[in-house]
Each structure stands twice: as C-alpha cells, then as structure tokens.
Amino acid sequence: MPCDISAIEKIIYEVSDGEDEALLKKISGAFKTFSAEQKNQIIPHINLLLDSWGDSVEKSRRKTSFCLDIADSSTRPVSDSLRAALIFAARHCTPSFLAKAESLRLSGARENNIPLPQIVGKIQKISFLDEKLIVYLLTNNEWFQKLDIDPITHSVSLKNLFNDARKNISLDTFISDSVFFRSEDEYLKNILNLKMFPPFSEWL
Fold first, then answer.
1. pLDDT tens track for 33-70
2. CA–CA distance from 200 to each of 138, 181, 204 (Å)?
3. What is the dihedral of CA 158, 203, 113, 9, to 10 degrees?
4. CA–CA separation, 40 and 34 (whole Å)
5. CA angle 132, 166, 134 (to 5 degrees)
C-alpha cells in the first residue's frame, strides 16, 4: 500500500470521476498510517474529491465507506467538505423503516461539537438496525437480543439474554448506550458463561 503523499494525491485524482473500491481503500488505508502533519497535507486534496462527489455519496456504498474511514481517522480542525460528506453517508445508511431526517438526527452528523469517530460509530450502528443483533447496554450492564423496532414510535424491543425478560427502550438510547455484536445469542451465552470476553472482531 503506497504511503507516499504524492502517490496518494495521484490516486485521489484518479477516482474523482469514479469509485474504484481498490483505489479508495488504498487512499483510506494510507491515510490511517499518516502522521498528523501528513494528514493536514492530504486533506485539501480529499476535500476536493468529496466536493466533486457531492450528493452522489448518498447513493454509493463505496463512497460512503470511504467517507466513514476518512472521518474515523481525521484530525482537527474538521473541514466543511467532510462534514457534508458525513451527512450524505448517514442518509445512505438509513434502514428501510427510518426516515432519513431521523437517521441524521440520531447520527449527530450535523452537530459540530460531536467528535467524528463518535459520529462514524453511530452511523455504523444505524446501518445495522435491520439486522439481528446482540447488544450490551452500558448503563444497565446487561446483555439483550434485539427483537424488533416499532416503525412508528421507534421503540426497540429487547429480550434479556439470560432470563428472557423483555424491555423496551428508545432508539436514541439504543444507539447511544449500547454496544452491538454480530454473534448469535447462543454463542454469546457460551462465552459469557465461561466469563470470557468476546474478541474485538465480534464488535460492530
């Protein structure tokens, strides 16, 4: 993977009119390894790329993934171009039952006081809301299986992983106060019964 600034600049201009996934990964992968000084040098070029994409980010999985990768590794100050791209990324990740405006609110993509990695984490959670999930509620220190989400009230129905007790929480709380897992409930039961912590690869 090239880590030379000039090489990455060249790739950035190669993808300005497209969305070659391999090239986008080269850019974001190199960006993660750059020092703060190098990132500051390359960000103006990335801003031009994001500006050229505009609202097409909302329609593209590859562009959305790229924007999230860059935002997750960015340093301050945050550019307006990246902020705008995150808004389109949040809209792209909106599940079928949720209005795009609500997805934006939940993600905090319009909030300048929220750190970018936190916004990225929320957008990623929103993108998984249609899937079967096991979650750990941080406030309650409890494990739950997500059953469903009411498309009208946005109330999330949960079942305790160990005693089958049911509870409902707001979607806001579900996004901000829980950690998502890909694993099936029986798998996590076995791990937790052995008092082993799931590997980082299982976290969403």
1. 998 889 989 999 999 999 999 999 999 999 999 999 99
2. 17, 10, 9
3. -140
4. 9
5. 25
